[in-house]
Amino acid sequence: MSESFKRMNPNILITGTPGTVKEKGLHEGFDQEFQSYILDDDKVVDELEDIVSKGGNIVDYHSCDLFPERWFDLVLVLRTDITILYDRLEKRGYPQKKITENIDCEIFQVILEEAKESYANEIVIELQSNTIQDMESNASRIEQWVYNFKTQKNKH
C-alpha cells in the first residue's frame, strides 16, 4: 500500500521561483554572492522524513526535485509575472545577480518543468500568485482540495 493511501491528511508541496534552514544546521555554509544559505539536501530530507510520513504537512520550498515523490499528494507551483517578481525580490534586498537568476527561472519555467519531471502530472498544479486576490483564490482552492482528499479517505 502506498504511503498516500495510509495518510488521512495530505502532504502538499508549495514551490516556485524564490520563496532556509539555518536554525537546525541543515546547510553547508553561506553563499556570499547570492546572500543565502547552501542547503544540505540529505540533511533536509532526513530531518523531514518522519514528519512528512505522518501526513498533514505543507512544505514550502523554492525547488522540488530533492524530495521523494512518495511524500506529496499535491504539488503547487506558484507563478508570478516577472515585473511583479522583480519588484518583490528588489524589496527583499536581493542582490542583482540573485534577482536575475530568479527572473530567468520564471521566464524559462524551470520550477514548473522540474515539478513535472519529478512528480506525476496529475498532482502538479500551476497557480498564479500576482495579487492578493490570486493568493486568496489559491488558498480557497487548496482548502477545497484538502476537504476532497479527506472525504475520499473517509469513504475507503
TrEMBL record:
Which residues does UniProt assign to the signal peptide?
none
Q: Which residues bind ATP?
A: 19, 21, 92
Q: Which BP terms does GO give this entry?
A: ribosomal small subunit biogenesis; rRNA processing
Q: What is its EC number?
A: 2.7.4.3
Q: Which reaction does it catalyse?
A: ATP + H2O = ADP + phosphate + H(+); AMP + ATP = 2 ADP
Ordered alphabetically, the record's keywords are: ATP-binding, Cytoplasm, Kinase, Nucleotide-binding, Nucleus, Ribosome biogenesis, rRNA processing, Transferase
Region (LID) location: 91-101
Which species? Rhizophagus irregularis
**Protein name (Swiss-Prot/TrEMBL):** Adenylate kinase isoenzyme 6 homolog
Organism domain of life:
Eukaryota
